[in-house]
Design a protein that fits this description.
With 373 residues, the chain is of the alpha+beta class. The protein is 32% helix and 25% strand. The radius of gyration is 23 Å and the shape is elongated. The mean pLDDT is 96. The structure holds zinc ion.
């Protein structure tokens, strides 16, 4: 247990941060996967690389040296892709100031990924093993909704007794025991074009119709029920003097549980025109199902909280509107999320982690690996 040191952990995190890995740069992401695979093999882990496809990088499965084939174990999930484009390091280089380390992806989530990796390496390096075998999955496409990893995630979750996700902690070190589901929609309105001077009355403005639909959509927001709808982009029309034939919008919706998800998705898909002679086409749907703090998750949280108390900190949990790969596993195996580093600024140019969180959080991950059975 004495093994973790802030400086050593930080050096390892720095190394991963300084290898830039935007989701849409598959070779860069695969490069870091290769490096992690080499590091994992050096402490006896069994590694498997799943070649990238559809413009994404490789995924990597690291299995503890112990554990039999088919034995249910602990699945640790981390993504190594970030939202920061290549070259971000020049504008926001890794740096440490007043107990805070900055860098692209340091908080979401290379910090947490590295802590869990270090916990497994420590246990293996001491020649110990744990009651349950440990599988650490590193994915390359989380930041765009995990299109090429979701099947693998669900397959590995089905082989797991517990799932631990190293997304960052939030709001003062809280971990995540419930997440809203996320839906995405594209709205396409088709009207009828007309000369806006000579034949205005013949036109059916797609823009006017979309404007009305936006009000309908935004009225679906219900904070008390945990439903939010956001029309995030709009476009349409061609010129000021043409009644717009087409208009589009991209919509994000968050829902707290499966029943409300079903109800609200049906409402959006079933949008009907407000005005005459226009058509509305809605595509899309739920891309990350919601998960709630089910009894198995509550028990796992209580266990984790007791471990944190032994280490010396008070662990709280929360429910968040943000999605993660935990959304794909919570209905399969008890899932705890937000076990990564504490900090703030995910997806921004001031992404940061708090150095004082590194050792306690690494210890917590290690204790979870050692005590779950
Ligand atoms: Zn993340």
């Amino acid at each position: 247990m004495a093994g973790f040191e802030t400086e050593k952990l930080l050096a390892g995190i720095r190394d991963w941060v300084e290898h830039e890995t935007p989701t849409d740069a598959p070779q860069a992401v695969s490069g870091l996967m290769a490096k992690v695979a080499t590091e994992a093999a050096s402490f006896g882990a069994r590694v498997q690389r799943i070649p990238g496809r559809d413009g994404f990088g490789d995924h990597l499965v690291v299995r503890s040296p112990w554990g039999a084939e088919g034995e249910k174990g602990i699945l640790v999930m981390s993504h190594l892709d970030t939202v920061h484009p290549v070259g971000s390091l020049e504008r926001m280089p890794f740096r440490v100031e007043d107990g805070i380390a900055y860098g692209p992806g340091i908080y979401d989530m290379k910090g947490g990924a590295y802590l869990a990796f270090s916990a497994l390496r420590e246990i293996a390096g001491e020649g110990r093993n744990t009651a349950l075998p440990i599988t650490h999955l590193f994915t390359s496409d989380e930041e765009v909704g995990s299109p090429t990893s979701v099947a693998l995630i669900r397959q590995l979750a089905a082989e797991a007794k517990y799932v631990l996700v190293t997304e960052p902690a939030r709001e003062g070190g809280k971990i995540v025991t419930a997440r809203k589901g996320a839906a995405r929609f594209e709205i396409h309105v088709k009207g009828r074009p007309a000369h806006s001077g000579a034949r205005h009355q013949d036109g059916r403005s797609a823009i006017e119709e979309l404007a009305r639909q936006i009000l309908v959509l935004h009225a679906f927001t219900d904070y008390a029920r945990g439903v939010t709808v956001n029309v995030g982009t709009i476009s349409g029309g061609t010129r000021a003097n043409v009644v717009a034939e087409e208009a589009h919008a991209l919509v994000d919706m968050r829902v707290p549980n499966p029943a409300i998800a079903e109800e609200m998705v049906a409402k959006v898909v079933g949008l009907t025109p407000v005005g005459p002679d226009v058509t509305i086409t809605v595509t899309g749907g739920l891309n990350r199902p919601p998960y709630e703090k089910l009894p198995g998750i509550a028990a796992l949280f209580d266990h984790t909280r007791a471990l944190a108390a032994e280490i010396g900190f008070d662990l709280q949990d929360l429910k968040t509107g943000g999605g993660s790969d935990g959304n794909f596993t919570a209905d399969i195996a008890p899932t705890l999320d937000g076990l990564g580093v504490d900090g703030k600024g995910g997806h921004t140019n001031y992404e940061q982690l708090y150095l004082e969180s590194l050792v306690p959080r690494a210890r917590l991950l290690r204790r979870l690996m050692e005590t779950l059975e």
